[in-house]
Design a protein that fits this description.
37% helix, 22% strand
């Protein structure tokens, strides 16, 4: 079995990748992560899904590709320049809502409204390294919390490794989550709320 064969990426992904390269954005989800995103999204029929960190929509495309017609995805990013690419290629999908907002502000807002989600992909600092507990409070029973980029990458800033170590330690101590760490793709963690 070879995990890089027959990944069948979403058809729109090539166009998103070309537009992404034109603005030198390098933080998009890789194909292995995307494939798992699609599978996890498919496990939540009629689900309400949240992506923290739209970027240019590479991960978003994979999530949408796994969702059924009754599911909804809210995707959040503060970077209008990058999110404009996602809007151009994915904005016509009626299951998708774009929110251009600081992630910290968004998480606080959802927390105050007692919103819950069936799936959360935390692909930005807020929701992963900041406001983690508030983000996990947004996860409904049986909900999946998913994170990538936990293995050392050349693009990591100084001090990032210690953030990852602290993040994993916090999740390992929580009694309301079942977690699995995967030394695969860019380093993944999946947690499910009991």
């Amino acid at each position: 079995m070879f995990d890089n064969t027959n990944l069948n990426p979403p058809a729109i992904l090539r166009e998103i990748e070309q537009a992404t390269a034109s603005i030198n954005f390098t933080m998009g989800s890789d194909y292995l992560t995307g494939s798992l995103l699609r599978t996890l999204a498919a496990s939540k029929p009629s689900g309400i899904l949240l992506e923290l960190g739209t970027g240019t929509g590479q991960g978003t495309a994979w999530i949408l590709n796994g969702m059924d017609a009754n599911s909804r995805l809210v995707t959040v990013d503060h970077g209008e320049h990058s999110i404009s690419i996602a809007k151009r290629f994915l904005g016509s999908d009626p299951r998708l809502t774009f929110t251009t907002m600081d992630g910290n502000t968004f998480i606080k807002s959802m927390h105050k409204q007692d919103e819950t989600f069936d799936f959360i992909f935390a692909d930005m600092q807020p929701g992963k390294f900041r406001h983690l507990n508030e983000t996990l409070d947004l996860l409904g029973p049986g909900g999946i919390y998913f994170v990538d980029d936990l293995l050392p990458l050349p693009k990591w800033e100084e001090g990032h490794a210690s953030l990852v170590t602290q993040f994993i330690a916090i999740l390992e101590q929580r009694k309301d989550l079942q977690i699995t760490k995967l030394n695969w793709a860019t380093g993944l963690l999946i947690a499910v709320r009991h």
